[in-house]
Design a protein that fits this description.
75% of the residues lie in helices and 0% in strands. By secondary structure, it is an all-alpha fold.
Length: 73
């Protein structure tokens, strides 16, 4: 495995960690009832996958764009 592949694997691991941290925050803040807190992680991931792949242009058209440079400050 060359340097670029190793670096790509490291980036992928970081992105996965960020995604799971965001899911944990979502679960902790919005899934407050006992039943919802018991929702398996696989189900939460499936819900997000379905939401992301089924979103239409009309649904995401009004979302504000983020300036990456401003987010770093």
């Amino acid at each position: 495995m060359d340097h670029r592949q190793r670096q790509g694997h490291a980036h992928l691991r970081i992105l996965r960690r960020i995604a799971f941290n965001l899911l944990a925050l979502f679960r902790g803040r919005t899934q407050r009832s006992e039943d919802k807190r018991l929702t398996p992680w696989a189900t939460l991931l499936r819900w997000f996958f379905i939401a992301l792949v089924s979103a239409t242009l009309l649904q995401v058209d009004g979302l504000r764009s983020r300036n990456a440079a401003a987010a770093i400050r």
